[in-house]
Write a structure and sequence with these properties.
- It is built from 6 helices and no strands.
- The chain is mostly helical and 173 residues long.
- It has a domain of 52 residues.
- It is extended.
- The two termini are 37 Å apart.
- The model has no long low-confidence stretch (mean pLDDT 75).
Length: 173
Amino acid sequence: MRIALGVIVLSAAAALSGCGKQGLRELQSPANGPDDFLVLPSKRLDAPASYAALPVPTPGGTNLTDATPKADAVAALGGKASAVTASGSAVPSADTALLASAGRYGVQQDIRSTLAAEDADIRRREARTANIKIFPEDRYADAYRKQTLNPFETSAWWRNRGVPTPAAPPEER
């Protein structure tokens, strides 16, 4: 009787452990609510130096408190935010050599749409067997398992070829 009770308790514990939320690891959004990542915080409200120097309000125009993520990112990385245009295409003269080096093998203009289509294809193929699991798994890691890089194996591979590599954190055991 004790063995049967133990089996029932362990089975119940295993069944209940699958009820936990995985959060951002889910491939499909479980809810139809708003996307929290689409909300941009506005800038602080500051009093201008001169109210007479403010631009005339235009419908559909920009506001002083509107978020400018590209210019803010450039400023955070040490660049000049004033060099970024509304489209984000202006490149400061100090960075032209870097841009030329980065694009020396060519630049694919539609890379974002290509990657989005390839990612949707991977998720569609992996979703066929995603629901045929006895125990819950991390579906995100399962879908991208073939594309995951093991940092310890890669570091060992380069070290065996005599290439100096930075120190890696210890392997989890």
